[in-house]
Each structure stands twice: as structure tokens, then as C-alpha cells.
Amino acid sequence: MPGLRAPSDYSNEPPRDPCLIINSKEPFNAETPRSALVSSYATPVDLFYKRNHGPIPLVDDIERYCVSISGLIKNPKKLFMRDIRMLPKYAVTATLQCAGNRRTAMSKARAVRGVGWDVSAIGNAVWAGAKLADVLELVGIPKLTRITQSGGKHVEFVSVDKCKEEKGGPYKASIPLSQATNPAADVLLAYEMNGETLTRDHGYPLRVIVPGVIGARSVKWLDYIDIIAEECQGFFMQMDYKMFPPTVNWDNIVWSTRRPQMDFPVQSAICSLEDVNVIKPGKVTVRGYAVSGGGRGIERVDVSVDGGKNWVEATKYQKTGIPYIADDIDSDKWAWVLFEATIDISHSTEIVVKAVDSAANVQPETVDEIWNLRGILNTSWHRVHVRVGHTNM
Ligand SMILES: Nc1nc2c(c(=O)[nH]1)N[C@H]1C(S)=C(S)[C@@H](COP(=O)(O)O)O[C@H]1N2
Ligand SMILES: [Mo]
């Protein structure tokens, strides 16, 4: 691993913003405060959630850093940063969401295993770098290839970080070759986030961004790429990040019966309010985010002020002053929409949000029907409680 090194302890961690809400220190897992999450369309890098499985890698010498591409291809190659920077640079606005987002709420229904997260294991950023489809062309794989002549069907991304789940080995994941070689899928080898060089926490010097797919497949600190016949057999593909039915528990689980989760489902959350709030009676503006996977836009965001009996439609936007329309030429298809609804509140109640995506997929009403032992993909209606208090009390 020339130029890129993984420490075996936590004495070399980067500095971090004190406003982050820390869910675990080692490895470092932290999320954005709710109110900060929706104060900008692109999430500031310092406040963007950080999801790690080991100590943060270091670059000793960026000149020596390179990514090797080998496996089931004829001409393996080593690519240095200058080779990757020589390719056309694309900027893709994409929301990254951890499959464990909103896990804490799911664990309240029934215990689950995993790091607890509130509603901010998600962020939206402008990622810039080379398209993976262009990179793979450099090693002789044409655009829109499903299988290489030597039988390669998946693209595996391997990092250097030491993860205990991998028994001290590196984090890895794969995506299908057909997606990797499809320029329209916008899979990037990114070296910039929001116009600046990637920071160590987010994968410096180079990371994968797989838009529309759970965060776990966007491998940080890329070391090498392997073209393989079957999907990656790593822990995070085969023993984690799979959606099991509520009947499966730790005694009867058979991991091989389910596929690794890829696209994320439709999701939304209220961010301008905490779980329990005391407010004055009158007008309240409710703000939050809504996003779906696979490049599906958001068709509608519904807000209820009576626990889900009656609904009003929220206003959606991506750019200020331009109304958002799903699948419109101006919409960022991989990115979230922010929403806003001003409602009148006269008594204590429950405010609820749910979104509908462009394929008319909806969110489930409660966690019960989607509960799973790893606590992933909690996309149930998001609810907050408001208690109306009077100032002269
Ligand atoms: N090398 C490496 N890549 C990784 C991870 C990791 O622990 N190691 N975590 C994954 C998970 S589960 C998520 S949700 C995203 C988080 O990216 P972020 O920390 O930039 O927000 O990175 C993914 N890529
Ligand atoms: Mo994740």
C-alpha cells in the first residue's frame, strides 16, 4: 500500500468539530445536530456524519500513493493521483446515508445490535473526481460492460483501515460491473467534497461514491480495485447490511439467505424539532429532508399535526427560489430535497412526516413491520412530540 498507511490505534485521529454528536469514540462515529443538518443544502464537511470501523488511515507521501486495478482483466495497472486527475472531472451532488440511520428509534421497539444513530447518519455533498467508468476504460474495460472476457462481473473496492469485524483486515465492498461501467450511474473515485480536498475522516486521498446506494458501499481510503467473478465476500457485504424479516433473530439467522443491501429506500425526517419539544401555541415551521435511492426523486412530502390522521403537503426545494420537481432536468437525482411546512399548533400533539418517491414508494407507518435484528433501514414515519406551554405559566 504505497503512500497510504493504517494506524493500529487511535493516537493519530484527525481534529473534529466539537458540535458533532458522538455515538462512539473508537472507532469514531458521530452525526450532525438535527437543526444544523437542514440549515444548508450541502452539508458542511466538518459537520457531515462520520462512520468508521477502525482508526483513520494516513497518507505519508501523496506522490507515491496509487490505486492498483487487477483481477479478471488482461492489463492490470497502477494509477497515481495524477493519472486519476488527468481524467475528466465530474461533480455529482449526492446524499450519503448510512443504512443504520435512525437505528436508535428502531431499537426502542425491540433491541437491535449496532451503533445507535438519531436521524443524521446522512448528509448531502458535492463530490468531485473521476468517473469509475472512465477509470475502468483505462484498463481496457469498455463502457457498459456486464462481464469481462475473463469472467469478471463485480468491482471490489478495498481499503487499508483495520476493522475488527474483518479480524484486523481492511474494509471492502463491491458493486456490479454493469453499474461501475455505466457513466449514467455516476459512480465516482472522488478526491473532493464540497469543492475542497477530501478530509481524512471522509476518505483522503481517494474514495468511492456510489450514488443512490447505502453508504457502506462507498469505500473510503481506496487502496486497490479487484475485478472479480462473484460479489465481494467481505464481512460488510455478507455478514452485515442485509435486511432480514422480523422473525429472524440471532439464534436462527442464516446470512447467506439474503442479498447485500444496495439501493436505499425512501426516507424522510423532521430536523427542526427534537423528539420532545415545548413550544408556544401558534405558527410553527417544520423543516427536514427527504430522499430516495436508485436515483428516484421525491414526489411528495406529507406532514401531519395530528399523529397521522390528516396531512398537508410540504414545500420541497433543492436550490433556493427554484421549486423542486422530481425528475426535472434541474433536479439533482442523487440528492436529497429539503422540505418546509408552516402549521398552526394550538395543543400538544405529534407531528409526523412521510415521503413518496417518484416510483410511488412510501414509508411504512411503524418500525414493527420493518424491524430487523441489525436495525438497518429504519424508514418508518418520523414522529416528534410537541407540548404546548404557555409563557405566563
Ligand atoms: N474504508 C472504509 N470505508 C467506509 C467505511 C469504513 O469504515 N471504512 N464505512 C462505510 C459506511 S458504513 C458509511 S455509512 C460511509 C460513511 O462515510 P462518511 O464517514 O464519509 O460519512 O462510509 C463507508 N465507507
Ligand atoms: Mo454505514
TrEMBL record:
One of its GO terms (molecular function) is molybdopterin cofactor binding. It comes from the Eukaryota. Residues 260-388 form the Moybdenum cofactor oxidoreductase dimerisation domain. GO terms for biological process: sulfur compound metabolic process. It holds the Pfam family Mo-co_dimer. It is an enzyme of class 1 (oxidoreductase). Residues 53-235 form the Oxidoreductase molybdopterin-binding domain. Its EC number is 1.8.3.1. Its cofactor is Mo-molybdopterin. One of its GO terms (cellular component) is mitochondrion. Keywords: Metal-binding, Molybdenum, Oxidoreductase. Pathway: Sulfur metabolism; Energy metabolism; sulfur metabolism. PANTHER family: SULFITE OXIDASE, MITOCHONDRIAL (PTHR19372:SF7), SULFITE REDUCTASE (PTHR19372). This is Sulfite oxidase.
